[in-house]
Design goal:
2 domains; rod-shaped
Length: 262
């Protein structure tokens, strides 16, 4: 119940209340001075709804891509860990498993720290992630020195290469967002149109009970601002603000690595 209420507050916020108040005020003034007009609603669909739906669809695809790349990092991390633990049994496998777990924990924690912080701080965290890839590369070469076959070393390097590729894709999703000009265009009309449509709301109010005159402008604003807020929360799938964000949990993943052996 608390989760649903929190999701509702992320859609209906102070911005929606502010614009609703302005729309109601505009409608009241138009009613008071008898300024009425039957405006076409196609302008709303063209200026606001269509750009917002396009942005939401694009942001949702970016989130799905982020989930796929995160899954790739985890899958290949698990494969690399199992290779270190099981491919040379009884030959220091416990030490190797502990070493690779420590590196993987640092890599995922660094990814979490980087993606949940502003882009302006990316240079602070990205080198940590690249160092973990370097450590994993040295770890694989260490398994070669311990007698692991060349074809198995090649397979481990493929796991590492796919992890690095998945990270770069995640970084680009984090760094590049949906078009800012399109979002600015929609935001402008979300603020302006509910006020300019005061004569239309006044026209509609004339066909309703007097105490219901505010229903149409409020619903109008809640729909538009709600769509805009959904787009904003999907825009960055890592910021942990929206209910549908991608959560990178290093400790949970590391704790699951040994489940298969138990």
């Amino acid at each position: 119940m608390v989760h649903r209420f929190r999701s509702l507050t992320q859609i209906i916020d102070l911005k929606s209340l502010l614009i609703s108040g302005l729309a109601v005020l505009s409608t009241w003034l138009c009613l008071r001075f008898n300024i009425v007009a039957d405006f076409p609603l196609t302008l709303i669909a063209t200026a606001v709804v269509f750009p917002l739906v396009f942005s939401i669809s694009t942001a949702y695809r970016r989130r799905d891509s982020a989930l796929e790349e995160y899954a790739s990092i985890k899958a290949h991390s698990r494969a690399l860990y199992l290779a270190a633990r099981d491919w040379r049994p009884n030959d220091g496998d416990a030490d190797r498993a502990a070493t690779v777990k420590a590196i993987l924990r640092e890599m995922l924690q660094s990814c979490h720290d980087m993606f949940t912080n502003p882009i302006s701080e990316m240079d602070r965290y990205e080198p940590r992630i690249h160092r973990t890839f370097s450590d994993l590369s040295l770890f694989v070469e260490g398994m070669r020195d311990n007698g692991l076959a060349a074809n198995e070393i090649s397979r481990c390097n493929q796991y590492l290469s796919r992890m690095a590729l998945a990270f770069e894709k995640l970084k680009h999703i984090y760094e590049y967002r949906t078009p800012r000009t399109l979002r600015a265009f929609s935001t402008f009309f979300i603020f302006v149109l509910p006020i300019l449509y005061g004569p239309y709301f006044a026209y509609q109010a004339g066909q309703q009970a007097p105490w219901l005159f505010f229903i149409t402008p409020v619903l109008f604003v809640l729909i538009l601002v709600g769509l805009a807020n959904i787009q904003d929360h999907l825009e960055n799938p890592f910021d942990q603000i929206g209910a549908d964000d991608v959560a990178i949990n290093a400790e949970k993943f590391i704790a699951s690595l040994d489940v298969a052996r138990d």
